Amino acid sequence: MQEKPRKTFAIISHPDAGKTTLTEKVLLLGGGIRSAGTVKGKKSGKYATSDWMDIEKQRGISVTSSVMQLNYDDTQINILDTPGHQDFSEDTYRTLTAVDTAVMVIDCVKGIEAQTLKLFKVCRMRGIPILTFINKLDREGKEPLDLLEEIEETLDMETYPMNWPIGMGKRLKGIYSIPDDTVEIFNEDHERKVVPLKEAHMLEDYEKDALEEDTMLLEEAGNEFSAEKVKNGQMTPVFFGSALANFGVQSFLDQFVDLAAPPQPRKASGEFVSPESNDFSGFVFKIQANMNPNHRDRIAFLRVCSGSFDRGMEVKHSRTGKKMKLNQSHSFFASDRETVETAMPGDIVGLYDSGNFQVGDTLCTGQKLIQYEEMPQFPPEKFAKVTAKNALKHKQYHKGMQQLVQEGTIQLYKTPYFEDYIIGAVGELQFQVFEYRMKNEYNVDIEFAHMSHELARWVTKGHVDESMTDSRKMLVLDQQKRPVLLFENEFSLRWFQDKNPDVELATGWDIL
Ligand code: GDP
C-alpha cells in the first residue's frame, strides 16, 4: 500500500495569538482526527488527555508537547504542539527541530511578539518553510500592509500575501484570494461562501476600489513568488483570517498541503540522509518523564527521519553502539496509548524508556552507525543556585543532577573554584519539573535561590576571570567548561561591553 505523504509542522506564536483555536479548527477540517487533546484544560474545564504528569493535572495545562494527526486531502498532517504560556520550556524549542514546516500565527492587533520571535529564530536556524497566518481579522488591527512590513523588517524575510482582507474588525467583508480571484465572504453564521470577485455583489464600490488599489500596489511593489525561497524560509506566504470565526482556515489548509515541506534529507555524521533511504533512522527530540510515582516509565519522543519504523524491529543506539529491540513502541496518544505498528519519515513515535535515552540520541539500522546533528542547547533566561536541603544526601543529589542534566531536563553551570551549581532554563516550568523529579526519583529535597540574571553570553574571545563577578554579572562555566557570563539585563551587558571591548561575547544562538 502506498503510504500517504507526510506534512509535519508546529505553530510558532505568542500566547493568546490563537494557536489553540487554529489547531482546533484545523483538526475539525481533517477527517479521522486522532487528537492527543491539547485543548487546554484551564479553559475547557477538562484535562488534556495527555496529562500523564501530576504536575500537569495540578496546573490544568499540557506540560509537554503532544502530537496530533489528521488526514486532509490525502495527506497525513502531523501537528506537534508547542507549549506556550507558563509551560514554555526547552521542549518547546526542541519540538521545532522535529518538524519540517512552521506556521507562524500573529495577532493582527499586536503584530510580532516576543515569544514568536524566539521561536522564529529556531526555524531560521534550520531554514525550514514558515507559513504565516495573521489572525483575529474580526478585530480592528494594524493595517495589512504595515503587518507585512513588520514581518519583513523584524524577521528579515520576504512576504507573499496569498489572500487579502476586505475590511477588518466590524467592517470585515471578506478575504480576496489572490491566486484564485475569488472572495470568501465573511458572514456571522460562519458558513463558508466563496464567489468569483466579479460576482461579489455584496461589496460596496469603495470596498472594491480599495481592494483594487491594494492589489495593484502589491503587484507593483510586492515580491515575486518564489517556491525556492519559501522552501528555504526566506519568503513566507501570508494568509489572513480569523480562527475563532473559522474564516479563512480551510483555504489556509488547502494551500498548506501544497506549500508545507515534506520530510527533507537531514544531516547525520557529516552526510545527508534521505528520507527515502531503506535504512531506518530517527532521533530523540524530547523525553517526558512520568510524574506518577507508580509509573516511573519515561517516554522518549522519536522523530522518524528515514526508512520505516516497525514495531519489534532491532535498531542500534548510536551513542552507545548497543543493539535494542523496539517492541514497546507507542504512539503518544496518552489516554489509550495506542500502539504504533509502523511509522514513516515525518512521523513521531513515543518509546518507553527506562533510562537508555538522552535528548539528541539517534537510533538506526543499516551497516553504518550514524548520528544526527547534535541537538542545540537553547539560551537559558532563568537561573537559580541549587543545593540539597540535606547535606547527607549529597550522593543522590549529584547522581540525580547528572542524570537530569544528561536527559536534557535542565542546563547546569558551575562557578569556577567553588563549583556551586547554577541551573539554567528557558522557562520556569523546567525548575518545577526538576525539583519534582529530584524529590520523587532521587529522594532529595532541593533548595532554590532564584537569581535575577536573565542573559547568558558565551565568552568567545578575550580574558575573563572570577574577579568580574559582581552583583550584576557572574562568571560560570558550562558543561563543556566554556566560560559564560550571566547578566542581569541588557543594561549590565552593555556596560560590561563598554568597559571590556576586548572580550567577545556570543548569544547561545551564535555558537550552539
Ligand atoms: P493561544 O494561547 O495562542 O493558544 O490562543 P487561544 O487559541 O487560546 O486564543 C486566545 C484567545 O483569543 C481566546 O480567547 C480565543 O477565543 C481568542 N481568539 C482566537 N482566535 C480569534 C479570532 O480569530 N478572533 C478573535 N476575536 N478572538 C480570537
UniProtKB/TrEMBL annotation:
InterPro entries tied to this protein: EF-G-like_DII (IPR053905), EFG_III/V (IPR035647), G_TR_CS (IPR031157), P-loop_NTPase (IPR027417), PrfC (IPR004548), RF3_C (IPR032090), RF3_dom_3_sf (IPR038467), RF3_GTP-bd (IPR041732)
Residues reported in the UniProt entry to bind GTP: 13-20, 81-85, 135-138
Superkingdom field: Bacteria
GO cellular component, one term: cytosol
Keyword Protein biosynthesis recorded: yes
Regions annotated as coiled coil: none
Main subcellular location of this protein, as a coarse class: cytoplasm
Matches recorded under Pfam families: EF-G_D2, GTP_EFTU, RF3_C
Cellular compartment(s): Cytoplasm
Keywords: Cytoplasm, GTP-binding, Nucleotide-binding, Protein biosynthesis
Domain Tr-type G stretches: 4-264
Keyword Metal-binding: no
A molecular function GO annotation: GTPase activity
The family this protein is said to belong to: Belongs to the TRAFAC class translation factor GTPase superfamily. Classic translation factor GTPase family. PrfC subfamily.
HAMAP family given in the database record: Rel_fac_3 (MF_00072)
Entry function: Increases the formation of ribosomal termination complexes and stimulates activities of RF-1 and RF-2. It binds guanine nucleotides and has strong preference for UGA stop codons. It may interact directly with the ribosome. The stimulation of RF-1 and RF-2 is significantly reduced by GTP and GDP, but not by GMP.
Name of this protein: Peptide chain release factor 3
Organism: Alkalicoccus daliensis
Gene coding for it: prfC
